[in-house]
User: Fold this.
Amino acid sequence: MSAIVIVGMQWGDEGKGKVCHFLSNWTDWVVRYQGGNNAGHTVVFDGKKYVLHLIPSGILYPDKKCIIGNGVVIDPVALVEETKFLRDREIEVAGRLFISSNSHLIFPYHQYKEGFREEVKTRIGTTRKGIGPAYEDKYGRVGIRMADYLEDDTFVELLDRNLREKKSFIERYKKPEELKEIILAKREEILPEIKEYVRETSLMLDKELAAGKNIIFEGAQGAMLDCDFGTYPFVTSSNPVSGGACPGSGVAPVCIDKVIGVTKAYTTRVGLGPFPTEIEGDLAHTLREKGGEYGATTGRPRRLGWLDIVQLKLAVRINGARKLALTKIDVLDDVKEIKICTGYSHNGQAVEDFPFSRKVLKEVKPVYETLEGWMAPTGGITDFDKLPENTRKFIRRIEELTSSKIVLVSMGKSKDDTIYIEKEGF
Ligand code: GDP
Ligand code: IMO
Ligand code: MG
Assistant:
């Protein structure tokens, strides 16, 4: 039995989907524990590209089972669309996908609220999927859970209560009575599709662990989008960090054996907010084009930056991620000089730890170390020792600076472009 958490170490889109899919080979179960369809996890499999938003990437292996845990917020419309997307590609989810009865649901009024905020109030640059407002309702104890959605009377009562409470801003978009009819009609379509998947998934996981099965927890977003430790308020409304896997799935911390942090060889972020090592101009353009740096969920261009060790050290610490998967090495193949930010300076003073003051974070200047690029293709190399010497030096330097071990290197979208250094399986 083994349980490992795979988490993003930056601002999301690190390549978690690819790494989870690669490591799923050794697992029985893959579990999502937070976030919702704000995530977009890309897996390139048998030459085909799949972008998964809600369903764990393990679903692409016919013999793996998947759970959408209680910590995830689910837009039922998006869920049905995703099961259909998979079924259309001959991937059957029935009997392999289970959804926690305690997960909370996203309704159009959550998206209205988010749209209103983004347009009229503080702009965060969210995905506008209604994630934040759904978590607000959950913690405000007015949320509607999957278990409630299944029961006619309970659902109507809770929906009426929410529509009454949120009347003033719903009216900006739609008549509340009209919205109620839309939600009820959708439910009629959706329920027969998803009813059979709903379970007490924490109980299932407990039994599977007791039976010696292996589990991967597939984090969404990343450490710097964590509501507690990220670049607040430009964060998401959940805890993507490894610790979130426990309350988000009902598995106790003692059951987690290992955490693998996924980091790109450089940094990207979508949305607004501070980004100390951001680069612009020709190099950013080249990396964006080479890395296909457009958000998998929103299609927005990603902002580009050098690898930031100050940020990465924070992510290693709060996730307990002493093992790292380093992705997108190939995007740097043609870059002559590669920079790594080893510290920040603020008003002439050295800053070693990631600052949480909004003012300081805006003002810090990155201090760079420059490494010679390898100027050679890395895709397709399957042996660590066959990587160009400068690639190996880059990898060793990151290990040294973060006090972590790089256990997996990814040099392309496909599963084949991966070197699993610490081939211990589970
Ligand atoms: P996630 O949200 O962390 O799963 O990452 P995304 O799927 O949103 O974004 C990562 C993007 O990089 C996707 O388009 C992946 O197919 C791609 N990708 C992942 N690993 C590599 C890699 O090593 N090299 C290249 N070139 N692309 C990669
Ligand atoms: P994956 O799992 C990258 C960002 C949004 C925005 C902020 C808040 O694919 O790595 P939200 O809609 O969550 O309230 O938006 O968080 N964001 C992501 N950025 N990858 C993601 O997921 C993201 N999920 C949310 O762009 O800045
Ligand atoms: Mg993504």
Q: What stands out?
A: Residues 8, 12-18, 40-42, 44, 291-292, 296, 327-328, 330-331, 410-413 surround guanosine-5'-diphosphate (ligand 1) (CB under 6 Å).
